[in-house]
Design brief:
Helix content is 44%, strand content 15%. By secondary structure, the protein is α/β, with parallel strands linked by helices. Strands 6-5-7-9-8 form a five-stranded parallel sheet, sandwiched between helices. A four-stranded parallel sheet has the order 2-1-3-4, covered by helices on one side. It has a four-stranded parallel sheet with strand order 11-10-12-13. The protein binds (~{Z})-2-methylbut-2-enedioic acid and iron/sulfur cluster.
């Protein structure tokens, strides 16, 4: 049996600088047994220690290909679950702070989705006519639900390809938990707004009439990201008044109105690529998480590009922010002592079904 883990408390009193040097030592000590994956929304003090950085699609591929014994995921809970599901059974996925969840992912749960499926069954046969699509920002049991019902996972990078795959099989999609990603993607594929209805999971039949359900192509779960909902069309208008030549780029988790007013819409990987490829001197207004925008600002200023954050108020993802150098160091020093703390392990049957839905996604992804 493993001895008790090292207490976290003394670590919480350490400064970021003290942690930094010890994290470097720990990484060297663990060598190839360890891989650290860092999501784009991580704060700099953590992000700089990542062996690989990316969005959840890229990082899930890194997890699937990694040979390391320990996969330490600096991101949020659903990402560590995906790493566990796609890695080999003997590999261990770790989330440095288990309280790092995602408020959007929490807006859909298995009981609510199963109820929606049953209620849709009063109007049509969902297993014949509806593909369940879950955004990767969701718990593993929802990915398993999709695996079991002929459905699929998507990320903001591959949402279009995933919806095309879904419509080639069944006439409708139930899309959860993010209504905005579903609506913004559906609209660019030519689906009119009145054929995308919102399923309010707190109401019987999602608050919809039989006719609305029959007519709908996409049934959008009433979920959203608390960070991306802060961006408003007025922010874009005000910026454009000041800088008429500026370019606007937004994440598809932002509202329909914000995305319509943006010149470009896409995932974090897309945002980074587009800004990096732009001409020197370009001015950008960016609607996504603050840590990423700040890093782009720093990186691009040498080329004379200026990168601005869309909201006048500071909006960071507070759960991503929970991963700090103190928790990362605590995790690594426990590993050096032979103890695994904060492992994320998806039950076997659930993982098997979730893998089905994730594999379908990886196959159709660009
Ligand atoms: O898929 C991801 O990693 C998230 C949450 C955002 C993005 O667009 O990269
Ligand atoms: Fe979840 Fe939004 Fe944070 Fe992404 S930015 S992890 S969707 S709460």
């Amino acid at each position: 049996m493993q001895a008790t883990a090292i207490d976290i408390n003394p670590y919480t009193l350490m400064t970021d600088e003290e942690c930094e040097a010890r994290i470097d030592v720990a990484r060297r000590t663990l060598g190839e047994r360890l891989v650290i994956l860092g999501h784009h929304y991580q704060r700099d003090e953590v992000f700089r220690h990542a062996d690989y950085s990316g969005d959840s699609l890229k990082l899930s591929r890194e997890a699937a290909n990694s040979k390391a014994e320990y996969i330490v995921f600096c991101g949020v809970h659903f990402m560590a679950e995906v790493a566990d599901i796609l890695s080999r059974p003997e590999q261990v996925a770790i989330l440095p702070d288990l309280a790092a969840g995602c408020s959007m992912a929490d807006m859909a749960n298995l009981a609510n989705v199963q109820r929606a499926w049953r209620e849709l069954g009063q109007v049509l046969d969902p297993d014949q006519s509806v593909t369940p699509v879950t955004y990767i920002n969701s718990a593993a049991d929802l990915k398993a639900f999709c695996g079991e019902h002929g459905g699929i996972v998507c990320t903001s990078t591959n949402a279009r390809q995933v919806l095309e795959w879904s419509f080639s099989r069944r006439e409708k999609v139930l899309f959860f938990p993010d209504q905005h990603l579903g609506r913004n993607t559906g609209y660019t594929m030519g689906i009119p707004l009145d054929e995308m209805v919102v399923w309010d999971y707190e109401q019987p039949m999602g608050g919809l009439s039989e006719e609305q359900i029959r007519k709908a192509r996409i049934i959008l779960w009433k979920g959203f990201c608390s960070v991306h909902q802060m961006f408003r069309p007025e922010h874009i208008d005000r910026f454009k008044e000041k800088y008429p030549d500026a370019k606007v780029i937004s994440h598809p988790e932002a509202s329909f109105e914000v995305c319509r007013k943006s010149d470009y819409v896409g995932s974090t990987e897309y945002i980074i690529k587009t800004i990096r490829a732009s001409a020197p001197g370009t001015r950008w207004l960016v609607g996504t998480e603050l840590n990423l925008v700040n890093r782009l600002h720093e990186e691009c200023k040498a080329e004379g590009k200026s990168v601005h954050f869309m909201s006048p108020t500071v909006c960071m993802c507070s759960t991503m922010f929970r991963i700090d150098p103190q928790h990362l160091l605590w995790t690594l020093e426990n590993l050096i002592d032979g103890r695994v703390v904060n492992q994320v392990k998806v039950p076997e049957r659930e993982a098997e079904l979730a893998r089905l839905a994730l594999d379908r996604m990886l196959e159709v992804s660009p």
